[in-house]
Amino acid sequence: MAKAKTDNMMNLAQEWMDIQRNYLMSSMQAMQPKDGKAASLNGVMHEELETTREAVERTLALEEKAIDEMRRGTSEMPGVSGMVDMMSEASRNALKMRSQLWQAWFDQMESAQKAAPSTTSK
Fold first, then answer.
1. If you placed Cys at 41, which of 35, 50, 73, 119 could pair as Cys (CB 3.0 to 4.6 Å)?
2. Do 92 and 70 form a contact (C-beta atoms < 8 A)?
3. For residues 63 and 95, is the Cβ–Cβ distance under 8 A?
C-alpha cells in the first residue's frame, strides 16, 4: 500500500514536470517564424497567452489531484481525519480562488490584446 502511495506521488511529480516542459517548449515555438515569416507581436502574444492558460489549467487540475492523493494517503492515520478534512477543504478553497484570479487575469489580457493596435507588417 505504501508503494502505491509513493508511486502515485511520483506520477503527480512527473505530470507536473511534463506540464512545465510542454509550457516552455510551446513558449519557444510561439516565437519561431512560421512559413518563413516572423510572427506578429499580436500573434506571439496570443499564442503565449493560450500556452500559459493551458499550463495554468493543467497545473491547477494537478494540484486538485494532489490534494485528493494526500487526503487518501492520510485518511488511514488514526486521529488526523478531522484535521485532514479541514486542511483539504481549505486547500480546495484556495485553489478555487487562485483559479478565479487566473481567469480574471486571462480575461484582462485578452481584452488588452483585442484593444491593442495590430503589429502586422505591410
1. 119
2. no
3. yes
For the chain, which residues score pLDDT lower than 70?
Answer: 1-2, 5, 36, 38, 75, 118-122
C-alpha cell at 17: 514536470
CA distance 21 to 97: 25
**Domain ranges within the chain, ordered by starting residue:** 2-114
Beta bridge partners, 70, equal none
d(CA 28, CA 6): 33
Residue recorded with cell 508511486: 7
What residues contact residue 7 under an 8 Å CB cut-off, 6+ apart? Answer: none
- Count CB-CB contacts under 10 A for residue 85: 13
Q: What was the pLDDT predicted at 122?
A: 44
Q: Rounded CA gap, 79 and 107, in Å?
A: 44
The three cell numbers of residue 55 are 499550463
As to burial, measured by CB atoms within 10 angstroms (0-12 exposed, 13-18 middle, 19+ buried), residue 57 is middle
Neighbours of 100 (CB within 10 A): 10
Rg of the chain over all Cα atoms, to the nearest angstrom: 20
